[in-house]
């Protein structure tokens, strides 16, 4: 099949692409056709360095045979088993294995199929948990400005990205938002976590004072905000959120769909930054992106609260046809084997400073107003063109792609989140190509 600019005739019309400017893309498609290690190959046969681990998910790099073989074996052996009132061994094995990496007593796993579903699951568990322990008035949810928690109604309600919310009606009731933690004026070009902004966590006290803690179920934040623009938590901020939520009996949910599985070092941001929430949501790196799957990690206390009442009763009326899917579990186990055997979570920390120095070398280039980084994630923020927000970022992204490097642009923010197998020459290629693209863009 060839992809000409005539979308209708070339067969591009039917697929309504997600989060994509469809007409722009179909006029000039960028098609990836295979992948190996750090590189994609496109339909023109060109190699493209994957500077974003796909969509923050291919943490172990592409084409891992252990994963594809495990998937192939599993489809042949047991393609599907219902997860309601039935089980299959791999889902249990995968859950057990995962809890070897979870912080604190987050020893229970609810499987989903995506990050969005993990978020909905976590929010529902939080509200149902309070009700199960006789505090059914705790129903309010607190998210954060610029937060991204997927695209389902709960997720966009607690999320804080205006474009993702504004055309979808009244959303969930009873949601408040903390202020975001991006402060370019004070923290521009900080390496790692910024010094300023811990007091933004105290805004939670104001929301509690307004509604009373007895009405609040949970606070959900990304420990590091990814899709909203790669926004770091100020030093001490997450710990303070933990203190305040604990003091008021409010559950703390960390949405680690991006930060989970090594992105910022350690298995979870929670572990790296030593703050244990009550619930963690994940997806993406859980299966190295190979099979859609998500997982929600829940504390003993929350889980055990549900395990009461008559034993023949379903404890949580929630679940998906594909929760704990055998093929997903097989992919996940093979992925975990790679992470553990190759020490990839540690590798993030080993590569962090080289990556940091490389991306911060872009300081001083035209239009660069901030650079932020932690672990193997970084963002370069460009000044927006007058009246055309996002145009400059897109042009840089396109230029980099045309020169063999894939980064991600969110408006005028260029994000990098490469596979954790990245080597120094790849970092040089990634940052060098981005530098040229920034220089080439007015
Ligand atoms: C923090 C966070 N939560 C949830 C999601 C939604 O995940 P999915 O696209 O798999 O539904 C994402 C996706 O990028 C995310 O970054």
Using the coordinates above, name the CATH class of the largest domain: Alpha Beta
Radius of gyration (Å): 22 Å
Q: Which outline best applies?
A: globular
Euclidean distance between termini CA atoms? 35 Å
| Share of residues in helices | 25-40%
- CATH-defined topology of the largest domain: Aspartate Aminotransferase, domain 2
Label the structural class.
alpha/beta
Strand share of the residues?
Answer: 15-25%
The CATH homologous superfamily of the largest domain: Type I PLP-dependent aspartate aminotransferase-like (Major domain)
Looking at the overall shape, the CATH architecture of the largest domain is 3-Layer(aba) Sandwich
Task: Tell me the domain tally.
Answer: 2
Please state how the strands of the largest beta sheet are arranged side by side: 4-10-9-8-7-5-6
Q: What's the tally of helices?
A: 16
Average pLDDT confidence is: 97
Bound molecules: pyridoxal-5'-phosphate
Total number of β-strand segments? 15
Largest sheet: 7 strands, mixed
Low-confidence spans: pLDDT under 50, at least 5 residues?
none
Cofactor: pyridoxal 5'-phosphate
Protein name: Aspartate aminotransferase family protein
Keywords: Aminotransferase, Pyridoxal phosphate, Transferase
Family: Belongs to the class-III pyridoxal-phosphate-dependent aminotransferase family.
């Amino acid at each position: 099949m060839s992809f000409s600019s005539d979308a209708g005739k070339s067969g591009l019309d039917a697929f309504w692409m997600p989060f994509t400017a469809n007409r722009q893309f179909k006029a000039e498609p960028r098609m990836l056709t295979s992948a190996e290690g750090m590189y994609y190959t496109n339909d023109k046969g060109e190699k493209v360095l994957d500077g974003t681990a796909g969509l923050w998910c291919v943490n172990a790099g592409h084409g891992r045979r252990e994963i594809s073989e495990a998937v192939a074996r599993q489809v042949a052996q047991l393609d599907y088993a219902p997860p309601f009132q039935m089980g299959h061994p791999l889902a249990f094995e995968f859950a057990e294995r995962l809890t070897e990496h979870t912080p604190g007593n987050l020893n229970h796993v609810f499987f989903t199929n995506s990050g969005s579903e993990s978020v909905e699951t976590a929010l529902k568990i939080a509200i149902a948990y309070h009700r199960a322990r006789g505090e059914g008035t705790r129903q309010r949810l607190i998210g954060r400005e610029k937060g991204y928690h997927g695209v389902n109604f709960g997720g966009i309600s607690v999320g804080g990205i205006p474009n993702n919310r504004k055309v979808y009606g009244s959303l969930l009731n009873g949601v408040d938002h903390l202020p975001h933690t991006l402060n370019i004026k004070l923290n521009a070009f900080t390496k790692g976590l910024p010094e300023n902004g811990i007091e933004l966590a105290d805004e939670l006290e104001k929301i509690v004072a307004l509604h009373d803690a007895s009405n609040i179920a949970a606070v959900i934040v990304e420990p590091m905000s990814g899709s909203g623009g790669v926004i770091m938590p100020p030093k001490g901020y997450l710990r303070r959120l933990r203190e305040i939520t604990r003091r008021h009996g409010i559950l703390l949910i960390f949405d680690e769909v991006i930060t989970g599985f090594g992105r910022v070092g350690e298995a979870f941001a929670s572990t790296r930054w030593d703050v244990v929430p009550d619930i963690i949501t994940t997806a993406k790196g859980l299966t190295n992106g190979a099979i859609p799957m998500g997982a929600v990690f829940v504390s003993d206390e929350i889980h055990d609260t549900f395990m009461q009442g008559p034993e023949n009763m379903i404890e949580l009326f929630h679940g998906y046809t594909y929760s704990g899917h055998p093929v997903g579990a097989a992919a996940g186990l093979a992925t975990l084997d790679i992470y553990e055997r190759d020490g990839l979570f540690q590798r993030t920390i080993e590569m962090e400073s080289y990556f940091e120095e490389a991306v911060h070398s872009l300081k001083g280039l035209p239009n660069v107003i901030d650079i932020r980084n932690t672990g193997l994630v970084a963002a370069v923020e460009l000044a927006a063109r007058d009246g055309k927000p996002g145009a400059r970022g897109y042009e840089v992204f396109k230029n980099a792609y045309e020169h063999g490097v894939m980064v991600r642009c969110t408006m005028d923010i260029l994000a990098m989140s490469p596979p954790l197998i990245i080597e120094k020459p790849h970092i040089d290629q990634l940052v060098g190509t981005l530098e040229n693209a920034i220089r080439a863009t007015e």
